[in-house]
Specification:
Elements (H helix, E strand, L loop, with lengths): L1 H31 L3 E4 L4 E8 L5 E5 L6 E7 L5 E8 L7 E7 L2 E10 L2 E4 L12 E7 L5 E4 L2 E4 L6 E6 L3 E4 L5 E9 L7 E10 L1 E11 L2 E4 L3 E11 L3 E4 L4 E9 L2
Parallel strand pairs: 3-7, 3-10, 4-9, 4-11, 10-12, 11-13, 12-16, 13-17, 16-18, 17-19, 18-20
Antiparallel strand pairs: 1-2, 2-5, 5-9, 6-7, 7-8, 14-15
Length: 257
């Protein structure tokens, strides 16, 4: 009996001594793989990670644009890195799931509530979903589908192809900077003296070549966007908005009901 008690006592001591070591090993592994969750002072639950497998198509899936707001950045490597932020005060266990199916990489809003589940397009209109922000550093913009979610780009100097469906939204350079260089000029024979006329502008949102297909989708070109070439195929109840100071050098395509 004493031997059994001694063995149990020794086992307990071993667990007590090794548990902190196991926790440290797990934390180091998570940090090394950049896959962990923290809470920042602004009340956001932050998760970070990376995805190393190759993909042909990137698909953003959400019940509505406000529920999954993605901010895209071009990546310096072939690895897709991501950061998600969700307000801590919001109820429910809504989250973002990133996974591969065939040659498509999904960034999908997954909501779970009492007796209600959302995944993909099976939306319950009476369910109040969380608002989750995701920063994605992408190696490729060749084929991106926005299904119900929202994507924002500050600038992109490489060709990109987008498909917007089910209120999927693409916003180009909604914030940034714009400077206008002016020169003085006379006003002719009117006697009004000298004036200043704009001769050149510099935009922070530089876009080289975009191809946008939308079926009940939304495209907004912000005030700080300078798009060199854009091809559009807008169908159904799609929306195109171009802010007053945005610059588009060449635009083509079709608009059909």
């Amino acid at each position: 009996m004493m031997r059994t008690s001694n063995k149990l006592f020794g086992l307990v001591i071993l667990l007590v001594l090794t548990l902190p070591l196991l926790v440290v090993v797990f934390l180091l592994k998570s940090v090394r793989e950049e896959s962990f969750t923290i809470r920042d002072p602004s009340g956001q639950k932050i998760s970070r990670g990376m995805y190393t497998q190759g993909y042909k198509t990137l698909k953003i899936v959400a019940p509505a644009p406000d529920n999954l707001r993605c901010h895209f950045f071009p990546a310096d490597s072939a690895t897709m890195q991501y950061t998600t932020a969700k307000p801590v005060f919001e109820e429910g266990r809504d989250s973002v799931r990133i996974y591969n199916s065939g040659d498509t990489l999904f960034v999908e809003f997954v909501a779970v509530g009492p007796g209600i589940k959302y995944q993909g397009r099976s939306e319950n209109s009476r369910r109040r979903y969380s608002h989750i922000n995701v920063n994605l550093h992408l190696p490729s913009f060749d084929d991106i589908v926005v299904d119900g979610g929202s994507v924002t780009l500050d600038s992109l100097w490489q060709p990109a192809k987008f498909k917007l469906v089910n209120r999927g939204t693409l916003v180009l350079a909604p914030t940034g900077s714009r400077t206008v260089r002016r020169k003085s000029a006379t006003s002719g024979d009117t006697g009004e003296g000298m004036g200043m006329i704009p001769v050149d502008s510099t935009y922070s949102g530089n876009f080289k070549e975009l191809s946008i297909t939308a079926n009940n989708g939304y495209l907004s070109i912000g005030d700080y966007a300078w798009v060199r070439d854009i091809d559009l195929d807008l169908r159904g109840k799609s929306y195109l908005g171009i802010d007053t100071t945005a610059r588009v050098d060449q635009i083509g395509g079709t608009i059909s009901p």
